[in-house]
Write a structure and sequence with these properties.
Layout lengths: L4 E6 L5 H12 L11 H5 L20 E10 L2 E11 H7 L3 E9 L3 H17 L4 E4 L13 E4 L15 H9 L2 E12 L6 H13 L2 E5 L5 H15 L11 H11 L8 E6 L2 E10 L2 H4 L10 H11 L5 E9 L8 H14 L5 E4 L2 E2 L3 H9 L3 E12 L1
Parallel strand pairs: 4-5, 11-12
Antiparallel strand pairs: 1-2, 2-3, 3-4, 5-14, 6-14, 7-12, 7-13, 7-14, 8-9, 9-10, 10-11
Length: 386
């Protein structure tokens, strides 16, 4: 069957980008858990003020080279993949790494082979030594990334991936090996908060001079700068980390602004010095999952549905949490966790998902377990030497 398989390569601005972005809609037609991003997040939208990731205007492309591939069998699209060189990542980590992403394929191994071979060849031509993926374009910690390997029966929360179970088998069979796993925990909001954690947080506030506050959306630009400063410091030693630029932060903030609950995003201070940030968001995927109805699942229909229910979403994703290194054993985590949950209990929230947690991040995994959570999803990143 490989004889009638064709691989087409194209760059940003090509008309096939739209087909590239739309392909998963046919692949996941019968998967009730799949939740795609808005097309505006990929292709851009003047109406929504979005710079789509698959357009040259997106800040990602200021320091990256990318290309795209579509596999066709008898003219019908049967798979996609991208290849990227993130120059900022390579300079930060002093590596020669190329990334593959947007990997979507029908359940035919020869199609996966053709796509991965094409991505590897392009990455090799750029002089890279390692191929890593999948993600969207690449695998910095703040990017959408990973192949789901456990938890297929649960729909993904915002900015997380979902895929068929056969992806892991295809990738490892081709020669990729596990590099890192990310975890998701789930915990019930309406539970008795562990008194020991409450006591630890109260003790920290009193004896370590810790104060906290919610984000102020009236000063969003200043607050975003503070959040990125803490995050980039706190995460600097983590696997796969790359500092988030102001432009990338602003792009993400713009896409999530409609559903922010400011009391779920909190800063902590020690003697007036900002030392930590915790951010949870109501999950827009609750409303954005396709309905596959006659009236369609356009961005307009899905956004209208989100705006109608955004103050009644029962699930939140604990999306980011960082403590500056000198302050990690003062009880700041206990204080912020318990405050966030205590507030959530007064509202309509029922479930909290801390994710994506590096499998090596014992501090946050322990805290999630102590709060009554359990692991329910796992994603994998793969490497292969070129």
């Amino acid at each position: 069957m490989a004889s009638n398989l064709a691989i087409e390569q194209f760059g940003l601005g090509d008309a096939r980008i739209r087909e590239f972005a739309r392909f998963p809609w046919s692949l996941y037609r019968d998967d009730c858990c799949w939740t795609p991003p808005l097309m505006a997040d990929l292709l851009g939208s003047r109406l929504l003020g979005a710079k789509g990731l698959l357009t040259a205007e997106h800040p990602y492309h200021a320091c990256a080279d990318v290309t795209h591939f579509i596999a066709r069998r008898e003219g019908r699209a049967v798979g996609t993949v991208s290849a990227a060189i993130n120059h900022r990542f390579n300079e930060y980590h002093d590596v020669q790494m190329g990334f593959f992403g947007f990997f979507e394929v029908v359940e035919e191994y020869d199609v996966a082979v053709a796509l991965l071979d094409a991505a590897r060849s392009w990455i090799a031509e750029q002089g890279m030594r390692v191929m890593r993926g999948p993600g969207r374009y690449s695998n910095a910690t703040h990017e959408v990334q990973g192949v789901l390997v456990e938890g297929f029966e649960f729909p993904p929360t915002v900015e997380l991936t979902h895929n068929p179970p056969y992806y892991d088998e295809f990738l490892t069979r081709w020669g990729l090996a596990k590099s890192m796993d990310y975890l998701a925990y789930t915990l019930p909001v309406r539970q008795i908060i562990d008194p020991k954690l409450v006591e630890l947080g109260a003790h920290a506030a009193e004896h370590s001079h810790i104060t906290t506050r919610a984000v102020d959306l009236d000063r969003l630009e200043e607050e975003l700068a503070l959040l990125l400063d803490i995050y980039n410091d706190a995460w600097s030693d983590n696997w796969g980390f790359l500092p988030v630029t102001a432009e990338e932060g602003a792009s993400l903030a713009d896409s999530l602004r409609p559903i922010v609950d400011p009391l779920l995003i909190r800063f902590a201070y020690v003697d007036g010095e900002p030392v930590a940030v915790l951010g949870a968001l109501p999950d827009p995927n609750w409303a954005l999952r396709p309905r596959w109805k006659w009236y369609g699942d356009s961005d307009a229909v899905r956004v209208a549905r989100l705006l109608r229910v955004r103050r009644h979403i029962p699930r939140v994703r604990l999306m980011f949490f960082g403590i500056r290194k000198p302050y990690r054993h003062l009880g700041v985590d206990a204080l912020l966790f318990t405050q966030m949950l205590a507030y959530a209990q007064t509202r309509h929230y029922l479930e909290c998902e801390p994710s994506m947690l590096l499998e090596t991040n014992e501090l946050v995994i322990r805290a999630s377990a102590h709060m009554g959570g359990h692991e329910y999803k796992r994603w994998r990143i793969y490497d292969r030497e070129i």
